[in-house]
């Protein structure tokens, strides 16, 4: 009998770590767990890293950087790494773990020693923008503005506790200093030349997300219509299991995909006003975090999800 690959989730008890652990039953792998009482003990974590083929880091950014340093000290015995934090998403030497990014990306992830799992908001924004820029429909200098709303689980354990214990706020804009940690990731991987304006928000619901991007069609190239945008997106994702391009819907609830690892893209165009709104709907904990991590784990280990 061939041995199953061994996975260690550093941060297994956190929101993202738990989501990945639950999903691992869909893959033929062995999970190497450590005693939760020792979850921050460097010696115990280093031994677990040495025992693993793949380590999934589900830690705050600074702890992720320290974990990578720890893995580096293992030299030849260092495991492959998948990092769920923001720390390495634009870093040289890391492959961006969004398999649908381009036709070559899944293969790049398969062979990569270090993969960064995308952010939840960037997953939606990049999925909408990158195909339009690659197709020459949107100029890379287009002044992109991105609005988004997330469920409170996106803020991790602290925000979950604040909402579930104290009950609010019902809806809150944040990131209004326009320096949200996801902007550089969107800027780079969407292929934009100009820094986008990004306005995130959080609502009093646990899971779900909508990313929306308003467009003036006359400022795109070639007199395009909403149908042209739909065709460009649909053509790009036709063979993808996790990304679906659907007809416009006059109303979208952010919670509809809670518990799912899929993402829905739509183009809401108005031919009279020559305007459109692109939307991506996903679960911030699904395709926005743990579901995407599972896709990357399967690719990196050459496994098929059950
Ligand atoms: N929640 C989300 O929607 C998403 C989160 N992410 C990213 O995933 C990462 C984890 O986030 P999330 O799961 O939400 O966070 P949580 O706060 O829910 O979990 C983080 C876990 O890491 C543990 N931890 C903290 N510091 C260390 C350390 N030095 N050594 C070992 N363990 C440590 C924490 O333990 P303790 O609680 O005891 O401190 C906790 O169990 C973050 O980088 C986040 O940005 C990515 C996509 C979406
Ligand atoms: C609602 C909320 O607070 N969301 C988080 C983003 C979720 C997250 O942690 O994103 P990463 O994938 O980059 O880790 C935030 O805006 O910081």
Structure, explained:
Helices cover 32% and strands 21% of the residues. By secondary structure, the protein is α/β, with parallel strands linked by helices. It folds into 2 domains: 6-118 and 289-301, Rossmann fold; 120-284, Dihydrodipicolinate Reductase, domain 2 (2-Layer Sandwich). The strands form 2 sheets. Strands 8-9-7-10-13-12-11 form a 7-stranded mixed sheet. Helix 1 crosses helix 9, helix 4 packs across helix 9 (286-301) and helix 5 (120-134) packs parallel to helix 7. The site of NADPH dihydro-nicotinamide-adenine-dinucleotide phosphate has 26 residues, from helix 1, helix 3, helix 6 and helix 9. N-acetyl-L-glutamyl 5-phosphate is lined by residues 85-86, 119-120, 150, 154-155, 159, 182, 200, 202. The active site is at residue 120.
CATH fold node name of the largest domain = Dihydrodipicolinate Reductase, domain 2
Q: How many helices in DSSP terms? A: 9
Mean pLDDT: 96
Shape summary? globular
Distance between the first and last residues' Cα: 19 Å
Q: Largest sheet, described in full?
A: 7 strands, mixed
The H-level CATH homologous superfamily of the largest domain, spelled out, is Dihydrodipicolinate Reductase, domain 2
The distinct ligands, each listed once, are:
NADPH dihydro-nicotinamide-adenine-dinucleotide phosphate, N-acetyl-L-glutamyl 5-phosphate
Tally of individual domains = 2
> Spans with pLDDT under 50 lasting ≥5 residues?
none
CATH class of the largest domain: Alpha Beta
Helix-strand pattern: EHEHEHEEHEHEHEHEEHEEEH
The count of DSSP E runs of length 2 or more, i.e. the number of strands, is 13
Adjacency order of strands in the biggest sheet: 8-9-7-10-13-12-11
What CATH architecture of the largest domain do you see? Answer: 2-Layer Sandwich
Q: Percent of residues in helical segments?
A: 25-40%
């Amino acid at each position: 009998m061939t041995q199953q690959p061994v996975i260690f989730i550093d941060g297994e008890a956190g929101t993202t770590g738990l989501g990945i652990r639950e999903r691992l039953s869909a893959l033929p792998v062995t999970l190497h767990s450590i005693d939760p009482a020792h979850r921050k003990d460097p010696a115990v974590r280093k031994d677990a890293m040495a025992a693993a083929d793949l380590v999934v880091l589900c830690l705050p950014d600074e702890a992720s950087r320290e974990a990578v340093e720890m893995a580096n000290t293992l030299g030849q015995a260092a495991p492959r790494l998948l990092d769920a934090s923001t720390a390495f998403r634009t870093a040289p030497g890391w492959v961006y773990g969004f398999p649908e990014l381009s036709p070559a990306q899944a293969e790049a992830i398969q062979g990569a020693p270090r993969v960064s799992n995308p952010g939840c908001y960037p997953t939606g924004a990049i999925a909408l923008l990158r195909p339009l820029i690659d197709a020459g429909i949107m100029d890379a200098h287009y002044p992109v503005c991105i609005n988004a709303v997330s469920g409170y689980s996106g803020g991790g354990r602290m925000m979950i506790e604040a909402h579930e214990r104290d009950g609010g706020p019902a809806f809150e804009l944040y990131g209004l200093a326009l320096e949200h940690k996801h902007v550089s990731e969107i800027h780079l991987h969407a292929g934009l030349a100009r820094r986008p304006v990004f306005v995130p928000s959080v609502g009093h619901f646990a899971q779900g997300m909508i990313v929306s991007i308003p467009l003036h069609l006359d400022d795109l190239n070639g007199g395009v219509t909403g149908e042209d945008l739909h065709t460009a997106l649909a053509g790009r994702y036709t063979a993808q299991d996790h990304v679906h391009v659907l007809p416009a819907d006059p109303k979208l609830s952010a919670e509809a995909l809670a518990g799912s690892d899929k993402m829905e893209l739509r183009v809401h165009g108005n031919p009279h006003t020559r305007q459109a709104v692109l939307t991506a709907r996903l679960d911030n904990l699904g395709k926005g975090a743990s579901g995407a991590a599972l896709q990357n784990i399967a690719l990196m280990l050459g496994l098929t999800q059950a």
